[in-house]
From TrEMBL:
<dbReference type="InterPro" id="IPR042099">
    <property type="entry name" value="ANL_N_sf"/>
</dbReference>
<dbReference type="Pfam" id="PF00501">
    <property type="entry name" value="AMP-binding"/>
</dbReference>
<feature type="region of interest" description="Disordered">
    <location>
        <begin position="341"/>
        <end position="364"/>
    </location>
</feature>
<dbReference type="InterPro" id="IPR020845">
    <property type="entry name" value="AMP-binding_CS"/>
</dbReference>
<protein>
    <submittedName>
        <fullName>AMP-binding protein</fullName>
    </submittedName>
</protein>
<feature type="domain" description="AMP-dependent synthetase/ligase">
    <location>
        <begin position="43"/>
        <end position="386"/>
    </location>
</feature>
<feature type="domain" description="AMP-binding enzyme C-terminal">
    <location>
        <begin position="434"/>
        <end position="509"/>
    </location>
</feature>
<dbReference type="InterPro" id="IPR000873">
    <property type="entry name" value="AMP-dep_synth/lig_dom"/>
</dbReference>
<dbReference type="InterPro" id="IPR050237">
    <property type="entry name" value="ATP-dep_AMP-bd_enzyme"/>
</dbReference>
<dbReference type="Pfam" id="PF13193">
    <property type="entry name" value="AMP-binding_C"/>
</dbReference>
<dbReference type="InterPro" id="IPR045851">
    <property type="entry name" value="AMP-bd_C_sf"/>
</dbReference>
<dbReference type="InterPro" id="IPR025110">
    <property type="entry name" value="AMP-bd_C"/>
</dbReference>
Length: 520
C-alpha cells in the first residue's frame, strides 16, 4: 500500500481530520499499543470519540464507545478470572447481531483468545463437530439456541445471555495488558455442502485493508451504518471492522425483516447498509417508506448478484450500490461501483488498490481476455489457512478462490461460479450461473437456482428451481424455450421445478445439497 494513496484516502474519508490533541494522542497510543485487532480498533474509537453512540440494538439499547469498551473489558476480566480462559484458548460465539456479540469478540481479542464465529444456522450435530474440531474452551450463545447446545459435552462451559450479563456486571477491577499473541478470528466457511471449515483470519498490520475498502466504497468517519449481514459471516465481520475504524454508529437487528430494516434505516438516519444480495432482493419487494432512508451506500457481498437486481435497486434508491466479490479465504478480490453496475449489472467489478487478480489455466498460465479461467487473488488479508492444517493452492503469492471467471476488455471481472459447479453435459462445459442470470430476468421469477445433476445419457444435465412471485405462473416448456432463445442448446435445463422458496443458509447462499434431494 503506497503512502500517497493511503494518506489521500484517509483524508478524503475524514480519518485525518484534526481533533482534540489529547484525544488524538490517546487514539494513536491505543493503536500503537493494541494494534489493529478488533480490541485495538474499539480502543482507538473510544479514545477519540468516547461519548459517541457506538451501537443501537433493535430493542432500543444504545451504548457509547466508552460503554462498549468498558463492557468488553469487564467480560474479558470475568472470563479470565471465572472460567480460566487464557491466551491461546478458543471460545465459540453463537450469537445473532447485537451488542453482546461485539462485546464477546472484543473480550476474546483483549485476552489473545481465538474467537470462533459460529453460524447460527448450524444443526446440533454440526455444533458438536465444531466444538470438538475447534477444541472450544467456552461457548457463548444467545438464549434462543439453548436447546440446540444441550447435546454438547457437559465439560464445555456455556454462557447464555443472562450469564453473559452477570459476567459483565460482576467483573473484578483490574487492568488488561496487550496479550503475548494476537487472538485470531476464526470464520467458518459457508458449509453449503457439509460441515463448514474454520478459516483463520489475519489481524491487519496497518491501514492497508481499511484503505482498500473505503478507497472504493465511499464510507466516512462518524457515519451511521446498519449491518444486516450476519456478523459471524466474513462480510458482516468486515463491516464491523470498518465501522469501528470509522467510529461509526452501528445499528443492529437480530433477524432480518425487510420492512423493519427499511423502518430502522429511516428512523436511525442511516447513511449505509451492509447486506447480502438476498436481503436486498427482499427489500425491493417491500414498498419504500416515505421519506426514504438517506442511503448513500448499499454494500453487498456473500453471493452472486442477480442480473436484474442492481438497476432495479439503483432506480429506486439512486446510484448507491457497491458489490464486493470475495470469500472467507481471500477477504476481497474486486469491488463493483454504481457506474460499473450500470454498465454491466452482473459484474464483480475491479480489484481495489493493493490487490492482484489473475485468471489462470490449470497449468498456472494467464488466460486471454474474455476466456474463462481460475480466479487467483493476492492481497494483505489472505487467510492463514484452515484450522485443520490444510490450505488452498497458491501461485506466485496468489490464492485460488475456487471460482471460475473472466475479465472483459474494460477490466471488469465476471464470476461464472464455483469450479466444482461447472458441469460437462454431452462434452460441453456449462455454467449454471449463466442460466440463473437469464432466468432471474423473467418478471414472474422471485428467485432461481440452477444446478447440475447426473444424467445417464449426457453425463450431467441442468436442473432449474424457480420460486415465483405470488399469483404468478410459468409453464416449464416456456421456460426452456426462453433459455433456448438466448443460450446454446446444452444450456437449456432438462428439469424445471417450481418451489415455494429456495433453501438458504444464514448468509443467504442456496443450499444445493437440499435441491439435489429432489433426485434422490
Amino acid at each position: 500500500m503506497d503512502l500517497p494513496f493511503t494518506v489521500a484516502t484517509l483524508t478524503r474519508r475524514g480519518l485525518l481530520t484534526p481533533g482534540n490533541p489529547v484525544r488524538v494522542a490517546a487514539q494513536l497510543n491505543a493503536l500503537r499499543t493494541w494494534g489493529w485487532s478488533l480490541a485495538g480498533e474499539l480502543r482507538q474509537a473510544a479514545a477519540r470519540d468516547p461519548g459517541r453512540t457506538a451501537v443501537i440494538d433493535e430493542d432500543g439499547v444504545e451504548l457509547t464507545y466508552h460503554d462498549l469498551l468498558d463492557r468488553a473489558e469487564r467480560m474479558a476480566r470475568s472470563m479470565r478470572a471465572g472460567h480460566g480462559v487464557q491466551t491461546g484458548d478458543r471460545i465459540g460465539v453463537l450469537c445473532r447481531n447485537h451488542h453482546g456479540l461485539i462485546e464477546t469478540i472484543v473480550a476474546a481479542t483483549l485476552l489473545g483468545v481465538d474467537a470462533v464465529l459460529v453460524n447460527t444456522g448450524l444443526s446440533a450435530a454440526q455444533l458438536g463437530t465444531i466444538a470438538e474440531e475447534q477444541q472450544l474452551r467456552l461457548l457463548v450463545h444467545d438464549d434462543e439456541f439453548a436447546e440446540r447446545v444441550l447435546g454438547l459435552p457437559a465439560e464445555l462451559p456455556r454462557l447464555d445471555e443472562r450469564a453473559r450479563e452477570e459476567l459483565v456486571a460482576g467483573a473484578l477491577p483490574g487492568d488488561l495488558r496487550p496479550p503475548e499473541q494476537d487472538g485470531r478470528i476464526i470464520v467458518l466457511t459457508s458449509g453449503t455442502t457439509g460441515t463448514p471449515k474454520g478459516a483463520r483470519r489475519r489481524t491487519p498490520k496497518g491501514f492497508g485493508p481499511l484503505v482498500s475498502i473505503i478507497g472504493r466504497i465511499p464510507l466516512h468517519t462518524r457515519t451511521r451504518v446498519m449491518i444486516a449481514a450476519p456478523i459471524f459471516h466474513t462480510w458482516g465481520f468486515a463491516a464491523l471492522q470498518v465501522c469501528l475504524a470509522l467510529r461509526a454508529t452501528i445499528v443492529l437487528h437480530r433477524r432480518f425483516d425487510p420492512a423493519a430494516t427499511l423502518a430502522a434505516l429511516t428512523a436511525n438516519r442511516c447513511d449505509a447498509l451492509f447486506a447480502v444480495p438476498v436481503m436486498v432482493q427482499r427489500l425491493m419487494e417491500v414498498p419504500p417508506p416515505d421519506p426514504r432512508p438517506p442511503l448513500k451506500v448499499v454494500a453487498v457481498s456473500g453471493s452472486a448478484l442477480p442480473g436484474g437486481l442492481a438497476p432495479k435497486l439503483m432506480d429506486a434508491y439512486g446510484d448507491v450500490l457497491y458489490n464486493l466479490y470475495g470469500s472467507t479465504e481471500v477477504s476481497w478480490a474486486s469491488i463493483a461501483g454504481p457506474q460499473d453496475l450500470r454498465q454491466a449489472p452482473t459484474t464483480a467489478g475491479r480489484p481495489p488498490h493493493g490487490t492482484r487478480l489473475e485468471m489462470l489455466d490449470d497449468d498456472g498460465q494467464p488466460v486471454p481476455t474474455g476466456r474463462v479461467g481460475r480466479i487467483f487473488v493476492g492481497n494483505e488479508m489472505l487467510f492463514e489457512g484452515y484450522t485443520s492444517g490444510t490450505s488452498r493452492e497458491t501461485r506466485d503469492g496468489l490464492l485460488d478462490t475456487g471460482d471460475l471467471g473472466r475479465l472483459n476488455a474494460d477490466g471488469l471481472l465476471f464470476v461464472d461460479g464455483r469450479a466444482d459447479d461447472m458441469i460437462v453435459s454431452g462434452g460441453e462445459n456449462v455454467f449454471p450461473s449463466e442460466v440463473e442470470d437469464l432466468l432471474a430476468q423473467l418478471p414472474q421469477v422471485r428467485e432461481v437456482a440452477v444446478i447440475g445433476v447426473p444424467d445417464p445419457e449426457y453425463g450431467q444435465r441442468l436442473s432449474a428451481f424457480l420460486a415465483l412471485h405470488p399469483d404468478e405462473t410459468l409453464d416449464p416448456d416456456a421456460v426452456r424455450e426462453y433459455v433456448r432463445r438466448y443460450l446454446a442448446r446444452f444450456s437449456v435445463p432438462r428439469d424445471v421445478i417450481f418451489v415455494k422458496y429456495l433453501p438458504r443458509n444464514a448468509t443467504g447462499k442456496v443450499l444445493t445439497r437440499e435441491l439435489r434431494r429432489y433426485f434422490g
